[in-house]
Amino acid sequence: MCGFGGYFGSIRGAEALLARMIAAIAHRGPDEQGKFVAPDAGLGHARLSVIGIGDGQQPMSDVSGNLTIAFNGEIFNYLELREGLIAKGRRFRTSSDTEVILHLYDEMGEDCLSLLNGDFAFAIWDNRRRRMVLARDRMGVRPLFHTNKDGVLYFASEIKALLKVPGVSAEIDPIALNQIFTLWAPIAPRTAFRNIHELEPASVMIATPGQVTVKRYWQLDYPHRDAPSKLTNEDDAAEELQALLTDAVRLRMRADVPVGSYLSGGLDSSLVSALAAGMTPLQLQTFSVTFDSAEHDESAFQTEMASALGARHRTIACRAGDIAGVFPEVIRFAERPIIRTAPAPLYQLSGLVRQAGLKVVLTGEGADEVFAGYDIFREARVRRFCGRQPASRMRPQLFRRLYPYLPGLQQQSVEYLAAFFGAGNTALDDPLFSHRPRFKTTAAAKIFFSGDLRATLKGYDAAEELVSRLPQAFPLWHPLHQAQYLETRFLLPGYILSSQGDRMAMAHGIEGRFPYLDHRLVEFAARLPPEMKLKGLVEKHILRKVAGHLLPSAIRERSKQPYRAPEARSFVGAGELDYVSDLLSEASIAAGGLFNAKAVASLHEKCRTQPASGFRDNAAFVGILSTQLWQKSFTGHKAGAARAA
Q1: What are phi and psi for residue 170, nearest 5 degrees?
Q2: I need a labelling partner for 154 at 20 to 30 A (CA). Which of 12, 105, 399, 618 fits?
Q3: What is the rounded CA–CA span in Å between residue 483 and residue 388?
Q4: pLDDT, tens digit, for every residue of 324-349?
Q5: For residues 28 and 481, what is the distance between their CA atoms, to the nearest angstrom?
Q6: What are the Glutamine amidotransferase type-2 domain coordinates in residue numbering (predicted)?
Q7: What values do phi and psi take at 362, rounded to 5?
Q8: Can you tell me the distance from the alpha carbon of 601 to that of 621, in angstroms, rounded to the nearest whole number?
């Protein structure tokens, strides 16, 4: 795992610029740094040495000197690919996976991407064809950003590096802010920064003099809803799934350093940890975060699972005030406003891994998207059930079963439940049916936008833009698969793998690995009949079947408890930090120009006096505070409501 940056075009002071770019992202690769400069092209690299420790330095060139790569991530099947290349007569000078990419590209060009099983972003300078090739992994685990300035293409693993380019400045993109306050994340290629873009997952960019083309090399797809499935035997499907997941974990245990595992106490990370424990010759090291608040804490399950594995288990407590204490750093590394505090404890957790001397951890992210584990999937099924009999008073009571961890919901009336979840209020053929309640509830926080920002946005609708990005086959999929696509294609890379994943881990130089996002497993799960994933209202049914004897029954049969962290109440009260009061003051809000100062003052006071604020107020509070922190960190808090892009 590493970080890199570079350019394609004619510039002055290349060495100095690359040094500044790499220094800005040195946290991603604290072990070594390197630079490569050629006429009209340059690459810089900050290395976290995990594979080929002694000979994997980058940027790396091939024997001819015609190909040079800067690479972030891992190619997990590099040994198998290497053996095939050797059989063809290829000779290797290093033991790294980086050199495997160079040889494959030399043989196949960008078509080599179809053979790579990994989490990666890379840039290859192809001197023979005078082109720069940028690529990103299928699921969007590793980030890659780019911008154009005076006809030169600049790119980097994090936007901080691009801000070192002369003339590239930080300015909020109001459309992206609207998307964050609706969809939780910008719709790629848009980022929070105006004129700085993200290379989308599963995409390759080829830049030649005067031309830049981007194409997708892989697409998440699902079968037609009426097509007969070839995976009809549940036992056979579970057996195949177990083989795929076991192999995905095996590949991700490959490293020249020890590999640990996050352990949340839920099914997903527990199953990964159980498989990993059987593959390591050493005692598996596991890591968890605990909370003071009972509604967020899962420490009892974490302890039970760690004991069952015989793991060396470490925990870090997220106490009152801790989230507020690290939140400015969280926003600096996330490089975007966020509406949830969940990244903050994960920032602390990766710090614990670094303190333990590890560089690599397995995680359970991706299972909820791939195997339909989120409440939103069950909720959509109940909403469709209610929508078929909108006058029923019995059907809305099912919503109580979905959220046992939300005690306030249990006491609400049937009428409230039906209204809150929009039962019967959304057309069943709406492409965003599954997500409309979430988007509507989140977008309610935009009531705090300033008049200037509203005028700039001119009625822009983020949800409708999302609809315009859906594939042509989307209406032909089963409703569950439609919902899964929305989560997997947009929220997963846009928020989970970025704001909660790569950026929080790499802030401490930690590489997260995601077995559930092995593309073979993702493709297999997409072909599974919906009822094998969501059986009635039991989420991840087939994954529970795979867990079988591997997990204690209390973990295996446990209902999904989504990972959450305390929100507005983390920042207010007796120990309120000065920066919170300063950034939410009427003067500071007015200077930022994005929110209504008086409305924000009322919200701040409400959160101080009513700790149990609802979702809208929590999302608004965190979103506004994080936007103010973003402006302070990247623009000096001088930017106002920018013109629309």
Answers
A1: -90, 125
A2: 105
A3: 19
A4: 999 999 999 999 999 999 999 999 99
A5: 35
A6: 2-210
A7: -85, 150
A8: 10
